[in-house]
Amino acid sequence: MGGFAFGNIEATLQLWLLAMIRPGSAMLAAPFFGAANVPVQLRLVLALALALPAASLIAPSMPADGLVSLSGLAMMAGEALAGLAMGFALQIGLAAALLAGEVISNMMGIGFAAMADPATGQPSPAIGQYLSMLALVLFLAADGHLLFFELVFESYRTLPPGAAWLSVATLKGMVDFGGLVFVAGLAVAMPLLSALLMVQAVFAMVSRSAPTLNLFAVGLPVTLSAGTILLAMATPAMAEALVRTMAEAMAEAARIAQG
Questions:
Q1: pLDDT-derived band of residue 116, with 50, 70 and 90 as boundaries?
Q2: Mean pLDDT over each residue of the chain, to the nearest integer
Q3: What was the pLDDT predicted at 7?
């Protein structure tokens, strides 16, 4: 039986630390796990739970000078970049819901009604909060968090530590996908925007036929009431658009995991 050696413990701890960087960075940038109200201890436990089987699967070769060296820092930077890219791809999909809520709030005339986002701590429109929570619930209901963990784990096969630097084509694909968030946000908001545009057209005709009518006193309550009713009616259609957007975000994360 071999003796107990502190050198082996140090090497094992460095291996675990290296393996924890990618899932930890991915959860830091991903929705739900990266929220400010999620305890850091929980993210560390989940990162360790993914790191242990990954480290035993790939058995990466550590730098000769250890992690506290130029080659070690470069290896850790590559791991952090790969994890952040996969998590950021999902965050872009969730940003479409916030953009849709911003557009709908401005159309309803309640763009000033903002509340603190529990994920970021920054103010965001109330309808944007509603749509983002809806997207998050749909994401969790479809086991998106488990699929995301699987992507992070499988990325160790295609992007082993030390070779995790993303290619230029992958980075360009991320930039192009980020531009699609505006298209996806408008697609989510389009069912409600079309109906609200008709309400605005009716008020335009009323203002021409009755110029003395105070539209500021009548228009805002009617638009707000109609928007609330239409929001309840259009939620199923917007939910389908959100599911498609989150599926595209998951597909982009899978492409990043493939290198």
A1: low
A2: 82
A3: 52
Give ∠ CA 143-40-100 in degrees, rounded to 5: 50
Q: Compute the average pLDDT of residues 106-113.
A: 76
DSSP states of 124-167: EEHHHHHHHHHHHHHHHHTTHHHHHHHHHHHHHHHS-TTS-PPP
**Cα 152 to chain centroid, rounded:** 15
Measured in degrees and rounded to the nearest 5, phi and psi for residue 115 equal -140, 160
CB hemisphere CA count around 149 (13 angstroms): 14
Domain locations in the chain?
A: 6-257
Task: Give the closest residue to 125 by CA, choosing from 115, 138, 137.
Answer: 115
- Pick the more confident residue, 57 or 118: 57
Assign 3-class secondary structure to 21-74.
Answer: HHHHHHHHHCCCCCCCCCCHHHHHHHHHHHHHHHHHHHCCCCCCCCCCCHHHHH
Q: Model confidence at 5, in pLDDT bands (50, 70, 90)?
A: very low
Buried b (16+ CB within 10 A) or exposed e, 32-70: bbbeeebeeeebeebbeebbeebbeeeebebbeeebeee
Distance of CA 107 to the CA centre of its chain: 25
| Separation of first and last alpha carbons in the chain | 42
The count of residues in the chain is 259
Distance (Å, rounded) from C-alpha 243 to C-alpha 181? 14
